[in-house]
Write a structure and sequence with these properties.
This protein has about 220 residues and is mainly alpha-helical. Helix content is about 70%, strand content about 0%.
Length: about 220
């Protein structure tokens, strides 16, 4: 089944990441200390882990259902409507990744000590390539293409060259290398161990999506 191609590796690595996460969390009680809106850190942590998993499974199913079977276009009547509905769901889940980490960082704030000036310098430093990435995506890559329009209309992109302007001049995968740095900022500013650990999980897990979902799909759409 084409939808599940390479997904055994996806799920095996996801299980390994979750086990590692569990071991780290339960080795340090301060990771689960605190609450926000009368909800314990443990619950916010579970939510902030569930959201990226739900997001990446959503993208996997939608992208490949449409790419190989035109499944969403058949359900929603046409490709344009299908893509708009998919994009709305994608946007909600993507923003939820950041919001859930913000709530987790507020719940678990001050769980480690560090020099405030150093923390702010790090936060500002990692925000700069993230800002440049979003500019580059909008200016050179295209927002819809970033959402995965090539999975909905592969013929349009089959002969398109890869973008090598803006941040893409320095890396072929700016979105996963630099875009996910934004998820580290709440944990840094609030000095939250839990939020930083979940940011690391997000950053590692997105590469699982890249190697076992997106990269195989790119090869299918664009050829060698």
């Amino acid at each position: 089944m084409k939808i599940l191609k390479f997904q055994l590796w996806h799920f095996l690595i996801l299980i390994a990441l979750l086990i590692s996460l569990f071991l780290v969390i339960y080795s340090d009680p301060t990771i689960l200390k605190g609450s926000f809106l009368n909800i314990d850190t443990k619950i916010w942590l579970i939510i902030s882990i569930f959201v990226p998993i739900a997001h990446q499974l959503y993208v996997l199913i939608c992208w490949r259902t449409e790419l190989f079977y035109k499944g969403l276009s058949k359900v929603f009547g046409n490709t344009l409507r299908a893509f708009k509905i998919f994009k709305a769901g994608f946007a909600v889940l993507f923003v939820s990744r950041l919001i859930s980490i913000i709530f987790l960082s507020l719940s678990n704030s001050d769980s480690f000590n560090a020099n405030n000036i150093l923390i702010y310098v790090i936060a500002v430093t990692i925000s700069l390539p993230t800002i440049y990435l979003f500019y580059s995506v909008r200016r050179y890559f295209g927002i819809d293409r970033a959402f995965g329009l090539d999975h909905f209309d592969p013929d349009k992109f089959m002969n398109e060259p890869f973008v090598n302007k803006g941040i893409f001049k320095f890396t072929s995968n700016g979105m996963y290398t630099y875009g996910f740095l934004i998820l580290w900022i709440p944990g840094l500013i609030m000095m939250s161990k839990a939020a930083l650990i979940v940011a690391l999980f997000n950053h590692l897990y997105i590469w699982v999506h890249y190697y076992f979902t997106e990269l195989p799909d790119i090869k299918w759409i664009y050829g060698k």
